[in-house]
């Protein structure tokens, strides 16, 4: 943003105004307000409950399907756990697992999840992490497990 | 979309060629990708400007392991000067799959390792 413009020189506004020319992100502000309204209508408590139900369902499904060949970071207990389940599948490199799931439109993370010291302590090169939220339900968990069973067969 | 996990990749991953350590190696090096935890040790015999023998071992995903297996199989018996010219596009042709940017580094790790091996100083006898 300028302060003044002449034919032979220009003076600029002071920072931060200098970098904030144009229309402010009005739509973004309105959208954010609507998003907050939406979450408050459902209730953060209800979302937390939904997430924890899904993660405990996922942990149980993992154990049923893979028994000892799955390692769940943080143990089997679902509390105090939010909607994330980090795991490793025996004999399957986490990046291969995430890559193969991605080909089936199932998106999960592979890597350190910004927690490298933890992985070092657990002596893991990397892990996978499935994250659940309001938009997921049990059928997503079932699809994940079903694909993982096939992936494990393919990779080992 | 074609899967990157084609039979050739899975086959080289499960049964990598030239797996192990070369006996009487003249050169050796280690290459790693800390963000994945992939790590390979490469060893080789360089004689008269030719990579006579080469092996690798370590831990990696299907893409990096298969790429290493295919690359070393190709590189054995080739002249060092020619091998030093190999680039990313050569590797992509070699593995024969299209890779997203985050998996490209997996496929290219072995090439980085080979170049490091070729430029390494000889193991003192």
Report what the structure shows.
By secondary structure, chain A is of the alpha+beta class. Chain A is elongated and about 75 Å long. The relative contact order of chain A is 0.14. In chain A, a hairpin with a 4-residue loop joins strand 1 and strand 2. Helix content of chain A is 47%, strand content 15%. In chain A, the strands form 2 sheets. Chain A has a 4-stranded antiparallel beta sheet, with helices on one face. A two-stranded antiparallel ribbon of chain A has the order 1-2. Chain B is α+β, with helices and mostly antiparallel strands and 125 residues long. Chain B has a 3-stranded antiparallel beta sheet, with helices on one face. In chain B, helix 1 (7-14) crosses helix 2 (62-75). Chain B is globular, with a radius of gyration of 14 Å. The interface between A and B is medium-sized, with 15 and 17 residues.
Largest sheet descriptor of chain B: 3 strands, antiparallel
Neighbour order of strands in the largest sheet of chain B: 1-2-3
* Large-scale geometry of chain A: elongated
Radius of gyration of chain A: 23 Å
Secondary-structure element string of chain A: EEHHEEHEHEH
Low-confidence stretches of chain B: none
Given as residue ranges, the uncertain stretches of chain A (5+ residues, pLDDT < 50) are: none
Summed over residues and divided by their number, the pLDDT of chain B gives a mean of 92
Binned, the helix content of chain B reads: 40-55%
Strand order of the largest sheet of chain A: 3-4-6-5
Notable traits:
heterodimer, A: 156 residues, alpha+beta, 4-stranded antiparallel sheet, two-stranded antiparallel sheet, 5 helices, 47% helix, elongated, B: 125 residues, 3-stranded antiparallel sheet, 3 strands, 42% helix, globular
Explain the layout of strands and helices:
The complex is a heterodimer of chains A (156) and B (125).
Chain A: E1 2-5, E2 10-12, H1 26-42, H2 44-66, E3 70-72, E4 84-89, H3 94-102, E5 109-111, H4 116-121, E6 127-131, H5 138-155
Antiparallel strand pairs in A: 1-2, 3-4, 4-6, 5-6
Chain B: H1 7-14, E1 27-33, E2 38-47, E3 50-59, H2 62-75, H3 80-83, H4 88-95, H5 101-119
Antiparallel strand pairs in B: 1-2, 2-3
């Amino acid at each position: 943003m300028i302060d003044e413009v002449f034919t032979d020189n220009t003076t600029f506004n002071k920072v931060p105004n200098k970098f904030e020319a144009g229309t402010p992100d009005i739509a973004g502000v309105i959208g954010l307000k609507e998003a907050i309204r939406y979450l408050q209508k459902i209730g953060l408590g209800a979302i937390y409950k939904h997430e924890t139900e899904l993660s405990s369902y996922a942990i149980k499904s993992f154990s049923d399907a893979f028994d000892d060949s799955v390692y769940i970071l943080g143990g089997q207990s679902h509390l105090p756990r939010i909607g994330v389940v980090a795991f490793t599948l025996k004999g399957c490199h986490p990046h291969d697992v995430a890559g193969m799931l991605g080909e089936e439109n199932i998106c999960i993370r592979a890597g350190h999840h910004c927690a490298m010291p933890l992985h070092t302590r657990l002596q893991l090169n990397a892990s996978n992490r499935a994250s659940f939220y309001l938009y997921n339900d049990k059928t997503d968990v079932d699809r994940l497990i079903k694909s993982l069973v096939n992936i494990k067969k393919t990779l080992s | 979309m074609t899967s990157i996990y084609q039979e050739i990749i899975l086959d080289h991953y499960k049964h990598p060629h030239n797996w192990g350590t070369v006996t009487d190696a003249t050169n050796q090096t280690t290459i790693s990708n800390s963000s994945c935890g992939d790590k390979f040790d490469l060893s080789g015999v360089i004689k008269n400007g030719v990579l006579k023998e080469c092996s690798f071992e370590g831990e990696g995903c299907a893409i990096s392991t298969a790429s290493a297996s295919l690359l070393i199989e190709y590189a054995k018996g080739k002249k060092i000067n020619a091998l030093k010219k190999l680039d990313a596009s050569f590797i992509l042709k070699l593995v024969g799959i299209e890779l997203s940017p985050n998996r490209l580094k997996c496929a290219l790790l072995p090439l980085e390792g080979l170049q490091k091996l070729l430029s390494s100083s000889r193991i003192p006898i």
